[in-house]
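Researcher: Hi, I'm a grad student and pretty new to this. My advisor asked me to get structures for two proteins we've been looking at. I'm not sure of the right format, so I'll just paste the first sequence and hope you can take it from there.
Model: That works fine. Here's the first sequence with its structure tokens right after it:
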Amino acid sequence: MTFIALSLTLIFVLIPIVLSKTLKLGLEKDTTIATLRSIIQLLAVGYVLKFVFDAESFIYILLMISLMILTATLNARKKGKAIKGITWKIAVTFMIVEAVTQGILLGFEIVPATAQFIIPISGMLIGNSMVLSILFLNRFTAEIEASRDQIELILSLGGTPKQAIHRQLKSAIRASMIPTIESQKTIGLVQLPGMMSGQIIGGADPIQAVQFQLLIIFALLTTAALSSILVGFLSYPTLFNERIQLLKKFTS
């Protein structure tokens, strides 16, 4: 694709801006900022990846993955400010997800141990883990707020924190995992996933593209389960004080 052809795709940005202005939605500024950021960020990442791929250094790979985890952590923690130590809990979750998924992929030699495979796959899995963590935290905090009387009642009757919050924790984990599971039920029928489409457009054999896409969607299932469960079980003990009472930030 030439830069002239790429510039013509800005028509797709102009359309929502015009519609927003016409309907007075007030999204023109956000749309413009999002567009400029995506251009700058992706071009910068493109040049960085070219350098990393050419260097073929494992240190650079680790630095790229660390940057991904740091950025994802800083973004996801915004939804769990009420939970003590949420930053390190999310960071640990992302590191475990990365270690488990890459450990399986590289340990069984499913993919080559090169930057061209490790970095893109890590980006997809960490990005998905970030979204799932945000979904979990949104639902979990909402569930606690809505059920604080029930939680305090169980605690007052001698229940443990785990017993008091079990239903809310389970509900939040389930709710955050459902989108991943449901999207995979119609994959290939309703949409062609990004990785598969990219490979096909790049000239790869469709069957090979399907095989790589299956690799990703299977790994995403593990990502979905680990992200929600780890963030949940690392978070819930810190919602209570030493007297086994729900912290005031979650009470009236």
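Researcher: Oh nice, that was easy. Here's the second one.
Model: And its structure:
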Amino acid sequence: MTGRRRWIVTGASSGIGRAIARDAPEEGDAVVIVARRRPALESLRDEMVRRDLEVAVVDGDIREQETIERAAEAAEVFGGLDCLVNSAGGGFPSPIEEVSANAWRAIFRLNTEAVFLLSNRVFPLLCDAAAGCIVNIGSAAGWAIDPNVAPYAASKAAMHHLTRHQAVEWARYGIRANVIAPGPTAVDGNRWSTDEGREQVRSMAALGVPAEARDVVALMRFLVSDDARMITGQVLNVDGGFVGWPLTPHG
């Protein structure tokens, strides 16, 4: 589509979500940014306004229906919704046998259930768009077996498959749905940004270097564009060859 786009981006306070919200929209677009940390969202808003973007801040836990409602209502104030980006997510390392039932449920609520609930809430807005588009931020962990992240990996794999269902069931409404699945990505000073982390990636991925947020942003820009009009139901890795790399020494 051309012209002004209206977005919702969750998980926008840091990392990949922040980079998407700041850099993927074009001048004149309207963006609802959602995350728990209001000061981080306000600083992001200031950066975005300097790019001539309209911005609405929604601070809250995207797992809660009240936050979902406020995000949808903010999009309605902008006149509708063209692009939904579900980027909020998280997890923690632990052997499977040490994961509590509450921890398992919490990770699935964030990484899978929140995607389902927000997508369904804004479904009518996407139907009204000229070309509604959902991009869910998955993970290479949803494909690969990386020990000690079972709840995170399983929840992302479930989200990948949920996205395929969205693509098939909502195609008749003109809605496309895809997943961007990053592998090790150096962002916000995380472990992949350190010398130790970068060295580890040398033996974990074919290209031997971690991705950066800009690599995800570049794919995001393509997926929401008219050039991607025939792409839906896909899980697109941005992982430097992490998935499928032979004899990977995970652990």
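Researcher: Is there anything I should tell my advisor about the second?
Model: You could mention this: The chain is about 40% helix and 15% strand.
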